[in-house]
Design brief:
The protein is built from three helices and six strands; from the N terminus they run ααββαββββ. With about 130 residues, the chain is of the alpha+beta class. It has a single domain, classed as Roll (Nuclear Transport Factor 2, Chain: A), CATH 3.10.450.50.
Amino acid sequence: MNRRQQEVMQTLERLLHAIYCQDTDTYRELVADDVSSFEAETPARIDSLEFHLHYMRQQKTVRPPNVQYRLDIVNPRVQLYGNVAIATYTLVVTRSDEGGIRFQTTNETRVFVREDNRWMMVHFHKTPVSQFSP
């Protein structure tokens, strides 16, 4: 990967870490206010940063304190078109808690735009491949 593709990957890694740690400050820094998304949890496209921030805050209140996550980005590809980047990959999430170790896999696409010398996510699409399973 070239330097700009590596920048996108670093932004993606920060973004995913923010999601799974419920770090709303970092998420807000890396995501556009009018972000759009398609997710399995919602029946239609969502057009709102606030929707995702609300969901993250709710997750923080119900998540058991001893849950740990490992995130593995498998087979990443970053396509650059001027100031737009498209990152596609498979995300493998390993969750460990008192119930043991479980896995979840999703195929994801995230679209980033470079503004003010930084990458910001403007759209994402997640398709579940498998849910948490032993």
